[in-house]
Amino acid sequence: MSSELGWLSLLPSLLAIVFAILTRRVILALLGGVVLAYLILFMPSAVSGLYAAVAGLGETLIKPSNQLIWGFTLAIGALFGVLERAGTFKHFVAALERKQIVPNRRRARMFTWMLGVVVFIESNVSIMTAGTTSRPVYDKLGVSRQKLAYIIDSTCAPVCILIPLNAWGAFNLGLIGNQGVEDPLMTFVYSLGLNFYAIIALLMALFVAWTGWAFGPMKAFEAAAQERARKAELNARVEQIEAGQSEFPINRGAVATVIISLVTMVLMVPVMLWYTGDGSIVRGSGMQSVFVAIVTALVIAVIGSILTLKAPIMLIIDSMARGAWKILPLAVILWLAIALGDVTRAMGSGEYLAGILNETLPMWTLPALIFLLSALTAFAIGSSWGTFAIMLPLAIPLAMTLGLPIPLFIAAALAGGIFGDHSSPISDTTIIASLASGSDHIDHVRTQLPYALLAALFATIGYLVAGWLVAI
Q: Which UniProt keywords apply (predicted)?
């Protein structure tokens, strides 16, 4: 049935994306996309389509692996709520400022970029760590949360694909091995240097972190953030003068609470990956590892806030509830995005897009077309991993048949998946970047898109040149 849908298989995702961007009603747009997808899948029976939509949403909600996603999403909200409302983050930022570790906006942005590079074990925990650690510093110094969302989104995913000592590497290595490649590991390694989009996106994020370069919608958010920070600093000085304090007294225990909770969150991920993988990090359960790591960090934050700042139990409970409630809309968006991705894959949207390459095309354009087709697939289904699973079985046999370099085609497929994932408002990675930075989701999509498109333009030129070089 799905193979006969053709262009209709793309309609739900594309309409959901357009509606979300134009109206900013992301939840309504995604819900409409899910319902429309099931109506198309079961047409002409609208009743069956509506029943299947409700059942599909329910199955997505109660699926055990997805429950871990809801769990760590709400837990990160609770963690941030405790650290923020109990006061430990205030002491942490003051300590960073007094120690001159991040004395200015450039140092803060570079701090975030380096965190994203260092924590390459799992993209979600990398985004969470870099986002939650940097967010109060950015607010203090006047760097927009949209700039934070861009830096963590454009650092963490590219690093995870370029340093594949993680679940990303294991997943793609398995896909490559299943295509009859003679030496999957070395072929994959050779492809890393040809992943033009990931490399360019990472370097562009470094350039933005160093210079603060803002263009497009990002400029307005940067100006507003600097104005808010200026007013907040003025108000803080007035409060200190009225209280008779020369400077904010730092509680070292509170600072230690923030550091220990965040460091534990990072270190627990490889430990849990090793434990759930029976001694192998690459075979471990990424979602379970992230969930346990964040809950452990939450427990440390709660205990530390009580012991160091004498925070009342009721304040802690209220902070956890408020933090989780604040993050709940993004959890709902993530749920609907996953549900939409599941049904669009069932409709065969990826296979339909891949079938476009069956037409006769100049050989030298194929790497660039693989990149763009992979990007369109990821944009439509909101999943880089789902795109890899669709595009690698197409790209590798195509390269083998034509006698072209397999690593180049693998790199083009992977690079396109990352670009499409960065551009799509229904991508789970994009949603989590918004969550970690505290940015409005559509604002993150709008501000990141110009940077992603610029990196994609350079990547496309790179694949055209590479295709021409191997074809001559």
A: Cell membrane, Membrane, Transmembrane, Transmembrane helix
Look at the block and give the residue holding tokens 């109206």. Answer: 23
CA distance readout (Å), 26 to 23, 287, 332, 382, 453: 8, 24, 10, 14, 22
Which tokens hold the place of 421? 């994932």
- Please name the residue that has the structure tokens 């969302």: 149
What's the Cα-to-Cα distance from 139 to each of 56, 58, 334, rounded to whole Å?
A: 40, 38, 25
Cβ-based burial of 142 (10 A; exposed 0-12, middle 13-18, buried ≥19): buried
Residue with the bigger pLDDT between 227 and 269: it is 227
pTM over the 0.85 mark: no
Type of residue numbered 379: F
List of residues 6+ apart from 302 with CB closer than 8 A: 82, 316, 320
Residues contacting 227, CB < 8 A, separation 6+: 142
Q: What is the dihedral of CA 436, 442, 447, 453, to 10 degrees?
A: 110
Q: Specify whether the CB–CB gap between 335 and 70 falls below 8 A.
A: yes
Our CA angle for 312, 318, 319, nearest 5°, is 90
Per domain, the residue ranges of the chain are 2-63+336-471, 67-188+201-326
Distance CA 223, CA 244 (A): 32
| pLDDT reading at 239 higher than 70 | no
Residue in the block written with tokens 């690698």? 392
| Closest among 50, 70, 53 to 62, alpha carbons compared | 70
How confident is the model over 232-247, as a mean pLDDT? 60
Which of 398, 360, 367, 362 shows the shortest CA–CA distance to 466?
A: 367
Amino acid identity for residue 278 in this structure: D
Inter-helix orientation angle 145-162/196-211, to 10°? 140
Tens of pLDDT, residues 277-288: 877 766 777 667
Whether the per-residue pLDDT at 17 is higher than 70: the answer is: no
Distance, in Å, from the CA atom of 307 to the CA atom of 322, rounded to the nearest integer, reads 21
Instruction: Take residue 231 and report the two structure tokens written for it.
Output: 């007013």
pLDDT digits (tens, 9 = 90+) for 383-394: 777 677 767 767
